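This part of the workshop introduces the protein records we will be handling. Backbone structure tokens are a discrete shorthand for how the chain folds in space. Once this layout is familiar, the rest of the handout is easier to follow. The record below serves as our worked example for the rest of this section.
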Amino acid sequence: MKVMVADIMRNITHRQARQLLHNKFVVVLGDSIQRSVYKDLVLLLQKDSYLTLSQLKSKGELSFEQDSLVEGGRLGHMTNGTEYREVRQYRSDHHLVRFYFITRVFSHYMESILADFKRELKPDVVIVNSCVWDVSRYNRKWVKEYKENLNKFFWQMKTILPEESLIMWNMTMPLGKKIVGGFLVPEIEHVGPALRYDVIEANFYSATLADAYGLDVLDLHFLFRFSLHHRMKDGVHWNAVAHRQITCLLLSHAAQAWGVELPKPPATGLYRDRRYGNPQIEPNDSSYTGPMWQELRPYEGIGPHFYEDGFSTLAHFSAGYLSSDNVEGNNGGNNSLPRPNGKPVSAAPSWPGSKFVMKKKHRKRQHNPYTRQKPKPLNGY
């Protein structure tokens, strides 16, 4: 099933995440972005807060929010090469979340991971993505090899895991025009400008094959195409707001796949986070599950109660103004009130609109079509 975003996007609280993943084994496979997906999920299972910038940037640390480094990372050799390994695990009384850092969708290392699934505990949920390293680090003529590896990986996953396991393929998120940082080592700097187009092509192949194998495809590239203000300056990674949106999307889809209905109480108890310009949940309010996507647009200069319904005491902002049934009442019972231009008011209420707007919009002068006539400058030249 291919998921195209908005129909299941909603906010997920710490309490809901714990209940939804109760006694579940979740595995996250992928690169540094998938590592942040793992970290945000581990954080949400413990509290309603966002990842810090240092947590997003750190890799291979010995411990993160009560998890443990099982293999690689600072226990091994820290590098930006394809041989880098990192296995992390968070375990509580009723939750088990594991992360494997991979640089290729199918390899000898991936075969060892799948062998662990075959002889040990099988995951209930697998969240996986592998693309950017595949198309840039191994071979510039990557298409044929990438398709073959995808086929091998999807076939093995469907063969090894039971039918009830939920496998979610995350399509790669949009890359920037200019990529900087540790990922783009000097050996592949020349592929940087074209890499974002390679990702689009690779997304098409991976989504088509994953759908053919019956996996769930989450089109994160489509979802975040208009949220580039949440992308980091390196052109690859994303901030804490974006990763919380990804977590909410993944958990919402899991709930939908399992037939679990997530409650949606009214949105209350929000405040502004000045770091990212997004609403967060009050420390004393753990019951908020209102919509999140529309509310995460950054906006400066608004007080802490902007997202609360503070306009209810103003008659001009009440719902009655938008109701055609109340037009007569808003006009004081007289539909023939004159406007300054002499025309009667027939369908709009009379309220001083200029008092509530920051700047009036000037009318654009109209000219005959197909002419070169332009407004005359103020100085007459």
